[in-house]
């Protein structure tokens, strides 16, 4: 599905954001990307679809090296790679429906896009996705009238309008409260499972990552320092990723989840366990 081979990114300032990153993601696999600020997480995600141009290395997606594609080839590949942004990246003055249908622009001709004329099948798909993400009946609301959680749901649905094979998810819960964060993570995971999508989820909340994401990749200073199961994130591993700190509260919360409090419908019991562990 996706393979990064010795990926590097050096910015014009001389800063090396990624240092020989090699990573493989199988079809249908969802992994979490964690690490401190400045570790290269967002840069890595943006290199995959060349929103950021890598300085060296290869990005192999479905057998093609994305780094070698011309503009037309890159547009074709980007249809298959959905992006979900931390700040939602919605057009605020447009309606929910118009924002969703923008996910079909890669498949629509210039004049049809300009005139906002979309195929009946695309409109039907948009209504279906709105229902799936819990926004049925909100198609005519302006994006700037939505809550943060609702905006993120629109962003998720818009990405799925592309019919992608891979989702790149950049800090999907950074601006959300804890309850909404779990709802959004649950929705992303359910949709990936339903559609057989692979996903890379850049997430800053370690406990949330271990609750929902079975495979965790830890970045530090542009290099992968951990690639393994969520259960393997012990004190030593967290110190290697983030630096020296007292990780007792974090590891206790993760252990509470590992003891079986992972039923996403039993939120009250899980929250009580987390509070007790802290």
Task: Give a brief rundown of this model.
This protein is an alpha/beta fold.
How would you describe the overall organization of this protein?
With 278 residues, this protein is of the alpha/beta class. It has one domain: Rossmann fold. It has helices at 41-48, 71-78, 96-101, 110-114, 120-132, 148-160, 178-195, 206-212, 235-242, 248-258, 267-277, and strands at 2-10, 16-25, 30-34, 56-61, 64-65, 81-84, 166-170, 198-202, 215-220, 223-229. The strands form 2 sheets. Strands 6-7-8-3-9-10 form a 6-stranded mixed β-sheet, sandwiched between helices. A 4-stranded antiparallel β-sheet has the order 2-1-4-5. Helix 5 (120-132) packs across helix 6, helix 8 packs parallel to helix 10 (248-258) and helix 10 packs antiparallel against helix 11 (267-277). The longest helix has 18 residues, at 178-195. Residues 262-278 have low confidence and may be disordered.
Alpha-beta content class: alpha/beta
> Helix count, per DSSP?
11
Radius of gyration: 19 Å
Which CATH architecture? 3-Layer(aba) Sandwich
Can you identify the CATH superfamily?
P-loop containing nucleotide triphosphate hydrolases
- Average pLDDT, to the nearest integer? 87
- Give the biggest sheet: 6 strands, mixed
Low-confidence runs: 262-278
- Sum up the overall morphology in one term: globular
Question: Which sequence of SSEs, written as H and E, runs from N to C?
Answer: EEEHEEHEHHHHEHEHEEHHH
Portion in beta strands: 15-25%
Q: Helical residue percent?
A: 25-40%
Strands, total number:
10
Reading off the top of the CATH hierarchy, the class is best stated as Alpha Beta
């Amino acid at each position: 599905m996706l393979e990064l081979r010795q990926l590097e990114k050096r910015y014009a300032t001389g800063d090396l954001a990624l240092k020989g990153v090699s990573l493989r993601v199988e079809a249908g696999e969802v992994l979490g990307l964690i690490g401190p600020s400045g570790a290269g997480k967002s840069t890595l995600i943006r290199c995959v679809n060349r929103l950021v141009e890598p300085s060296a290395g290869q990005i192999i997606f479905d057998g093609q090296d994305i780094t070698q594609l011309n503009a037309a080839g890159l547009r074709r590949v980007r249809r298959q790679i959905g992006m979900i942004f931390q700040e939602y990246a919605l057009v605020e003055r447009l309606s929910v429906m118009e924002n969703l249908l923008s996910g079909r622009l890669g498949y629509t001709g210039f004049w049809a896009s300009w005139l906002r004329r979309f195929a009946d099948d695309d409109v039907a798909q948009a209504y279906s996705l709105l229902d799936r993400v819990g926004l049925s009946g909100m198609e005519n609301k302006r994006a700037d009238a939505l809550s943060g959680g609702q905006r993120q749901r629109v962003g998720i649905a818009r990405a799925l309008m592309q019919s992608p094979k891979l989702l790149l998810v950049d800090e999907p819960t950074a601006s959300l409260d804890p309850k909404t964060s779990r709802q959004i993570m649950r929705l992303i995971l359910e949709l990936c499972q339903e559609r057989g999508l692979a996903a890379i989820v850049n997430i800053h909340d370690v406990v949330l990552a271990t609750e929902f994401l079975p495979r965790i990749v830890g970045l530090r200073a542009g290099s992968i320092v951990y690639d393994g199961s969520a259960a393997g994130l012990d004190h030593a591993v967290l110190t290697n990723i983030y630096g020296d700190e007292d990780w007792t509260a974090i590891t206790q919360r993760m252990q509470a989840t590992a003891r079986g409090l992972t039923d996403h419908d039993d939120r009250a019991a899980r929250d009580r366990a987390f509070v007790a562990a802290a």
